[in-house]
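--- STAGE predict ---
source: upstream dedup step, 1 unique chain passed
mode: sequence only
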Amino acid sequence: MSALFSIACAMAVAACSGSQEGGGNIGFADGQEADPVAVDFPVAYIKRVIPEDEDGDIVQDDIRELITFNVGADLFVRDRASPSAPERNVTEAVTEGAGDIQDLDISWDGTRVVFAMRGPLLEDVDEDEQPTWNIWEYDIVGDVLRRVIVSDITAEAGHDIAPTYLPDGRIVFTSTRQRQSRALLLDEGKPQYAALDEDRDEHAFVLHVMNADGSDVHQVSFNQSHDMDPAVLSNGQVVFSRWDNAVNVNEINLYRMNPDGSALELLYGSNSHATGTEGAEVQFLEPREMPDGRLATLVMPFEPVDFGADVVLIDAENFVENDQPVAVNAGAMSGPAQSKATVNDVRTDGAPSPGGSYSSVFPLFDGTDRLLMSWSQCRLIETEDVDGEMVESIVPCTQERLDSGEAVVAPPIYGLWIYDRETDTQLPVVAPEEGVIYTEIVAAQPRDLPPVLFDGEPGAGLDPVLAEEGVGILDIRSVYDINGVDTAPGGIAALADPAQTTGDERPVRFIRIVKPVSEPDDDVLDIPGTAFGRSGQLRMREILAYAPVEPDGSVRIKVPGNVPFGLELLDARGRRVSPLHRNWLQVRPGGELTCNGCHDPDAGVSHGRQDAFNTVYGGAQTPSVPFPNTQAALFADFGETMAQTRTRISCADDCAALTPSVDLAYEDVWTDSDAAGRTADAPFAYTYSDLETDPPTEASCTTAWSARCRIVINYEAHIHPLWSLPRVTLDADEVTVLADNTCNTCHNPADAMGQPQVPAGQLDLTDGPSPNQADHFNSFRELLFGDNELEVNMGALQDRLVEVGIDPDTGDPIFQTVPVAPSMRVGANASGRFFSRFDAGGSHVGWLSPAELRLLSEWLDIGAQYYNNPFDVPVN
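--- STAGE serialize ---
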């Protein structure tokens, strides 16, 4: 054992031979004195001062907060992975000891290190004027350090972190630049800005790619929260950690995609978070592929203790979840997909970790099944009375000390180690030091170069016509395929056959494409919480398009490229019948996103991966003939869905069947009346042109849909005017009023003579601000928030009071108000109290038009927001 390591062990009171005392399972290799070289190639690592606040407490960042700065980190290099090899600081000339370093990666030939560096920070300068995180590269052979993006202006245009070399020499990294998303904002008539994550804590980091010289920076992922930790797989794809943070989801999962952003899909983890210690919730960070194809991944809670994590190996090739194999292995493999990378007893539930903890892992590709790791021993602070004076000392964890209930965890002491998985032994590479932590290490070891994946999915190019139009294709085989099960009433084949099923009998008739609204920070626009309406968690939403769902449940339509979107399935009235989409999809311009079907988010299984389930719908079974009892002109190719058949034939002309709409329109193009033995379904449409109030979209979009079309519904501009729109029935003389069904005539606290009255249905739809929230119209609050029942008492309108008991002290009666439930809820089908009045047999039949009911339905379905454009919110 080297003298350096012996000294470090004495300082740390570590067990330096055999196994750790009480908390250890790993063995430290014998004969270390005779093995001065652990690995005969250079290593690069980060050494930093333990970050502390002004009170001396360790600063531990939430893993969802990426714009950090912990002063006192530098990049070091050793020519060999050995404690005896001298180290050199390669960034000190830039950081001056006051910078921060993170996210190391090594080039495929082992000659260069790429990393993120920030600082030093400037004194008396606001945060938005401080240096940003930039991507740097160190040439080990030439001893040259350079910032990849040379231009100061370009480099400081956003925070850039987590760089990784692609096989073609380019660099993929995550950044707040949001290059393509900012450009899209201009198309939407908004200023360019970096959008906040869905918690509105900081600007969202999403994946970008640039050339080796820093040119051609462009965005390739379009999540609304962070995409982190990209790494390249042996097949050339990129694996990364994605923070899914939409609609009741808050988790970090593993995703994969091609380097150009195509073929994006969930890879692993959405239903595997309760796999920490004693079922603790953990997140999946920093995946790196092992030589055997498994992913060495850090697992930790959102707020880890002392930078600590466990390391698990994930068989993501054969599993989409810990106990859910991919379709080809269903019934043959049961899991678990996750296994511990070491024998150490590492806890992830916040309790002291007997086996220490890890902060990074880097697999070696030398045939030895070894890992380079940053590891800290578990240590406790013990206080004892020495000659009447209480003296603190640092001692190793033992089970007895941990069970005492008096254990106080000592500061971490991360050193760098090489772990041999064949023998479960560990050798030091860089000995730990008090007050210092070594947080990452990579080996400058040549590795096999993965294949280069060019634009488009492997084996397929981009459609140049669609790319020029700025759209891609969304193709769904059947919305009735839920988690690999045919859920159609009577089966998909019966639903597709017009002789067996009419349009009215099909539960899903339309699909809605919804886009989240990018929200600016307070420096761009200070958005009050009242702008979001009843369900703030849904934030703001825009609708991109509608399209009919074919009888077999298939969909094939254009969708905007490089735009995050979600899907909603609708009934014949245009009301959502599917759960809210809980993650964001994307498609490249000119590319195609294909799905077998849809997903039940409460089923406990994952669907968002192509090989998770086999399709239950084989499509047309006879080539060159129509589907059963359908029009002969719509002849199918073998395996085609109805949507694929229809769009293929349409594209012989103008591809109209591929183009969605801002309107909901249905036409039965399939039923062959003679073969089906019935007449075709009657056509119907809900169009914005039928509104007498202002439509929530541009006029050009009502005649010709394009990728730039947006439906933006604001309550004051588009919903509230419905209540005052005259709805008067006149006699033949066109003068005499037979009926006045204007909404705010009856739903008014005053009658025609101005005298107080109880609004019809206890619902006030008149103008003016709410007495409960001045930022909202009173009608909005009345519709969506609970209220008190009113009555006219002695000529005045007041809350109705009912006696509920007697005060035992005074004998006086106790009165309470009578609550009134809101007429509407978020979600049109949850708002039956309102819509039932307009249904057949209801009291308000015909008083609102189909187009108006459609507008109300879609507004409720996307969240019943007060505003859906932040720049429409009045500035105080």
